[in-house]
Amino acid sequence: MLIRLIYASRTAGVLTPLDVRDIVQRSQRNNRRLGITGALLLSNGIFLQCLEGDHLAVNALYHRILLDARHTDPAILSFTEIDSRMYAEWSMGLVTSTEANQQTFLKYSPQAEFDPYQMRGTALTALFAEMVAHARVLPG
Ligand SMILES: Cc1cc2nc3c(=O)[nH]c(=O)nc-3n(C[C@H](O)[C@H](O)[C@H](O)COP(=O)(O)O)c2cc1C
């Protein structure tokens, strides 16, 4: 069964661009093997990740990601059965905090500060859909 899981977490301490690259590179390698696709958004010290794939594979990966000391305060914000993937071409795309992306984040945010913990699952899904539609995802 194909599902999409969206969760948020906070960066633990200061993460350098090298740390982020390490996370994305490992994700791309592993996810390709596991048939998992998705995107990782980083803004305002908050990770927001969309994981798509078989429900058991995504569950297992999520529990492994939880053990990573580079983030904290994880919260599942959406878990949905889906018919097709949004990120079929991305084993793990990266969405960075460019000015154009910030505007889109705010479009879906109740607060002026981007805070996905306060957002509903449908808004988060629409946000990821807009990132794909406007090619705002760095491929991977
Ligand atoms: C926010 C965040 C998201 C991550 N997403 C993934 C992911 O999608 N896939 C993955 O394999 N690892 C992901 N990781 C990294 C894992 O926690 C772990 O470091 C990695 O899977 C280990 O890979 P390795 O066994 O190839 O060294 C993520 C880590 C963080 C902090």
From TrEMBL:
<dbReference type="InterPro" id="IPR036046">
    <property type="entry name" value="Acylphosphatase-like_dom_sf"/>
</dbReference>
<dbReference type="Pfam" id="PF04940">
    <property type="entry name" value="BLUF"/>
</dbReference>
<dbReference type="InterPro" id="IPR007024">
    <property type="entry name" value="BLUF_domain"/>
</dbReference>
<protein>
    <submittedName>
        <fullName>BLUF domain-containing protein</fullName>
    </submittedName>
</protein>
<feature type="domain" description="BLUF">
    <location>
        <begin position="2"/>
        <end position="93"/>
    </location>
</feature>
